[in-house]
Design brief:
Layout lengths: L1 E4 L3 H10 L5 E4 L3 H10 L15 E4 L10 E4 L6 H7 L1 H4 L3 E4 L12 H8 L4 E6 L4 H5 L4 E6 L3 H11 L4 E6 L2 H23 L4 H21 L4 H4 L2 H10 L6 H11 L10 H16 L4 H10 L5 H9 L7
Parallel strand pairs: 1-2, 1-4, 2-3, 4-5, 5-6, 7-8
Antiparallel strand pairs: 6-7
Length: 319
C-alpha cells in the first residue's frame, strides 16, 4: 500500500499519478480538508480543476499500522520533523520516501538524515527532480530522480512508483540528489530577484551557471558524486525552477526584485535552506557567494542591485 503524507499540491499530484496503478491513501492533517476533498472529489485549494480518481482514499487519520508500507512524505522540509515525531509508531520499520527539497534550518540535516534520526529503523529514500504538481496531476511527461542507499529497495521503489508518464531514474547517491534539490531552490530565488529587478536574461543565465558551480562545490565537499548534480535532481531542477514563474522560490525572488510583499502562507523552501547551507559552508570554508547574497536579500541587508554589485566586484578568475 502507498500512502502520500501531505495533501498540498505536490502530494495530491503524486497521489493522482499513482492512482493509475491502484489504491492510494492521501493524508491531510485537517479533517475539514479531508471532508472537502471527499465531497468535491478535487483539492480545490491546491489543485483546482483537477478531479481526484476513485482510487484515492482521502483521510485525516494516520494510525493504520501495516507491514511493508511505502510512505511518500510530501510535506514542507521545515515541518518534516514534526510529522515524523507525531507518527513514529506508524512509520517505524517502513519505507519513507521524502518528497521535500531543503535543509532543516535548526539542525542542518537533509530529509533522509532527519528520517534516520527520528525513525532509526525506517528505510529512507528521496524523490526529487524537475516537476510541477499540476504537470504530474495532469499526466504530463515527467522524469524524476529516486535515491536510496539500499540498491534493492531503490529498485523495488522504482518499480512501485513509476507510471507511464512518471519516469524514475534511480541512484544510490542520496547526498547528491538531496543537495541538488535543496540548493536549486536557493538559486531560483536569486534568479527571480534578478528578473524582478529587470537586470536581464543574460544576468539570469550567468547566475544559473555560477549557481550551479556553487551547488557542485558544496555537493562534492559533502561526498556526492559530481555527475549526480548534472542529472535531473541538480541541473534539471535548476533549469526548471530558475526559468518558470510556476516555481514558488522563483516567485519569491521576483517579489524581492520588485520590492513587493510576498504571501507568507506560500512555502518557500529556499529561504530557510539558504541560511542553513551558508552556515555549513562557513564551517567547511566553501565559497558560496550567491547563497550569501540570497541570505542578505531575504534578511533585508541588501537590495538586489547591491547584491549584484557585490557579486560583480569579486576578483576575476578562471572558470
Amino acid at each position: 500500500m502507498i500512502t502520500v503524507v501531505g495533501a498540498g499540491a505536490f502530494g495530491t499530484g503524486l497521489a493522482i499519478a499513482l492512482a493509475q496503478r491502484g489504491r492510494v491513501n492521501l493524508w491531510t492533517r485537517s479533517a475539514d480538508h479531508a471532508r472537502q476533498m471527499q465531497t468535491d472529489l478535487t483539492n480545490a485549494k491546491r489543485l483546482p480543476g483537477i478531479p481526484l480518481p476513485d482510487q484515492i482514499n482521502v483521510t485525516s487519520a494516520l494510525s493504520d499500522k501495516r507491514p511493508h508500507q511505502t510512505f511518500l512524505l510530501a510535506v514542507p522540509m521545515q515541518t518534516l520533523r514534526q510529522v515524523l515525531s507525531d507518527h513514529m509508531d506508524v512509520f517505524a520499520g517502513q519505507t519513507l520516501v521524502a518528497c521535500c527539497k531543503g535543509i532543516e534550518l535548526n539542525s542542518g540535516l537533509s530529509a533522509t538524515q532527519l528520517i534516520h534520526q527520528v525513525i532509526p529503523d525506517a528505510t529512507p529514500a528521496i524523490l526529487t527532480g524537475p516537476s510541477f504538481a499540476a504537470d504530474i496531476a495532469r499526466g504530463l511527461p515527467t522524469a524524476l530522480t529516486l535515491a536510496c542507499t539500499d540498491e534493492p529497495t531503490c529498485k523495488a521503489l522504482q518499480a512501485q512508483l513509476g507510471t507511464p508518464c512518471l519516469r524514475l531514474y534511480r541512484t544510490t547517491d542520496v547526498i547528491g540528489a538531496e543537495l541538488g534539490g535543496a540548493l536549486k531552490n536557493v538559486m531560483a530565488i536569486a534568479c527571480g530577484a534578478v528578473m524582478g529587478a529587470d537586470l536581464g536574461e543574460s544576468a539570469r543565465a550567468a547566475l544559473m551557471t555560477r549557481g550551479f558551480a556553487e551547488m557542485c562545490r558544496m555537493a562534492q565537499a559533502k561526498g556526492a558524486d559530481p555527475t549526480t548534480l548534472a542529472g535531473l535532481s541538480g541541473f534539471g531542477d535548476l533549469a526548471l525552477t530558475c526559468t518558470s514563474d510556476k516555481s514558488r522560490n522563483y516567485q519569491f525572488g521576483l517579489s524581492l526584485g520588485r520590492g513587493e510583499a510576498f504571501d507568507p502562507s506560500i512555502t518557500v523552501e529556499g529561504a530557510a535552506t539558504a541560511h542553513a547551507v551558508l552556515a555549513e559552508a562557513d564551517k567547511m570554508n566553501i565559497d558560496m557567494p550567491i547563497t550569501g547574497a540570497v541570505v542578505a536579500l531575504c534578511t533585508g541587508k541588501l537590495q538586489v542591485t547591491q547584491a549584484m554589485d557585490m557579486l560583480l566586484s569579486r576578483p576575476q578568475k578562471e572558470e
